[in-house]
Amino acid sequence: MSALINAALVEARSRHVPRLAIVLGSGLGGAMDLNDRVEIPYGDLAGFPEPGVSGHAGTLALGTVAGVPVALLSGRSHYYETGRADGMRVALETLKALGAEALVLTNAAGSVRADMPSGSVMLITDHINLTAANPLLGETGDDRFVGMTRAYDAELCGRARNAAESLDLALAEGVYMWFSGPAFETPAEIRAARVLGADAVGMSTVPEVILARFLGLRVIAFSVITNLAAGMTGAELSHEETRDRAPEGGERLARLLTRLLEDWG
Ligand code: HPA
Asked: Which residues contact 11 (CB under 8 A, 6 or more apart)?
């Protein structure tokens, strides 16, 4: 219900019907240029997250990139803020109601691989949900049994690889492991993550991927690496580091996304 009301409000303020939505992670808010931009604060939209984390603005912006109408979400709800994994549900339902066909998720993440340093951009090809949380807990009906075998859209991943190649931009690939946060991981947890098959670790994105697949949105996701994970350098981790380092990879990710949109067709 909220989603339809939100969609009507958005349609009244912007003439753009977004074909895809992009969720910008911590410190990545300034990265994308949007033409003919209209901004709507989350506070005007029922059920949208309350902006809580510094580095997250809390605005839905509509406009075009390379002529393609898009919705840009700066700010997301995190599981660690509320203990609920479905904090982005109404926001994603609203984007679906507006007509979006795909969701581009971005985040800041720690790297588990020494050969993927801060500043790298990683295409997420799969994930591991290390929390016991799921945004569909309590959902009824058979649709809740969402298939996750092809959660990360193979065709969109292919387009991202082509876009990176055409820009001569290094694009790492790997598995993202979702930790609940807000405390960072321990070195032992990072060693375990590596053994279990993770390439990057972070505190977001996975619930949104599950919700998006539940809603029938195609998904593509990227991590901007802001640090080597706990225990890999001896330095303590901090949110300030995440926020301050994100723009470096974020600028490269923005170029990649722009090229992806130029070829959207
Ligand atoms: N761990 C979890 N989340 C993160 C990290 C990290 O090392 N870096 C940025 N977000």
From this structure: 17, 98
The residues that are catalytic are: 26, 56, 78, 80-81, 108, 203-204, 227, 239
Q: What is the pLDDT of residue 29?
A: 63
Task: Give mean pLDDT, residues 187-209.
Answer: 98
| Domains within the chain, CATH numbers bracketed | 2-262 (3.40.50.1580)
Is the model's pLDDT at 216 over the cut of 80? yes
Q: What residue ranges line ligand 1, CB within 6 angstroms?
A: 108-110, 179, 184-185, 201-203, 226-227, 229, 237, 242
Provide mean pLDDT across the span 221-248: 89
CB 254 within 8 A of CB 31: yes
Among residues 154, 93, 99, 100, the alpha carbon closest in space to that of 123 is found at: 154
Residue nearest to atom 2 of ligand 1 (CA): 202
Q: Ligand 1, residue 230: give the atom nearest the CA.
A: 7
Could you give the CA distance from residue 150 to residue 126 in angstroms, rounded to a whole number? 8
Please tell me whether the peptide bond between 207 and the residue prior to it is cis, using omega within 30 degrees of 0: no
Return the pLDDT at 56: 62
